[in-house]
Amino acid sequence: MINAPIFKELTDKQKIKLIEESSILVYPKNSIIFEEGNKSSGVYFIEQGTIKRFISGLDNRESIFEVCGPGDIFGHRILFNDERHFDSSAAVTDVKLQFIPKAVFLQFIAENNEMSNSHINLLSEDSIRHIRHSQVVTQLSLKQRTAFYLLYLQSKNLDKNNMGVEISRTDLANLLGTVKESAVRILHEYKTANAIKSMGRKLIILDYKYLLTVSKIFK
Fold this sequence. Notes:
This protein is an alpha+beta fold and 219 residues long. It folds into 2 domains: 5-136, Jelly Rolls; 140-215, Arc Repressor Mutant, subunit A (Orthogonal Bundle). It has helices spanning 12-21, 102-111, 113-139, 142-155, 169-176, 180-192, 208-215; strands at 23-27, 32-34, 42-48, 51-56, 62-68, 73-74, 88-91, 95-101, 165-166, 196-199, 202-205. The strands form 3 sheets. A 4-stranded antiparallel sheet has the order 1-8-3-6. The protein has a 4-stranded antiparallel sheet with strand order 2-7-4-5. Strands 9-11-10 form a 3-stranded antiparallel sheet.
């Protein structure tokens, strides 16, 4: 955890405090980490697994706007104003998290200008990423954004011994902004083209170049 970019400028004393004050949290797949309206109590750092962040619509359908993987932090955006969480987070796979209490995180930011600047940069990157998500959902076809998000989700898996995208078809559909049946149809097209294969709910990418070409994001 202390090697994460946002913590790399901490002093040795602060790094010791970070280790002493943080705690390990383990959540099985599909479990809720926090819900909309919960009071913010700290920051989460992902050691293993992936989580989803989402907002529930009027019909209780999830609108997933971000998936986080190892090395990412979440829960940090509302620490300064005592607001409650505007979103929910849940485990997509079994996850192992390091939890940093709010008071400790804010103390580091107040004492360390470099970490404060890193946090500002992180918030800026979050905003850019969410703008990109809106662009992908609104401007790309379903086939294009499926390719884009398969590549994006693969980038979140840092375990080289466990390659593949582990996500339920319902979660994938909610991330794509479509219904499950449409997401399954596009996945079938990619399987037919030998671009992916499935092992249970895990999707294995076989042809990265094909997906890159279809997404038309990277030129």
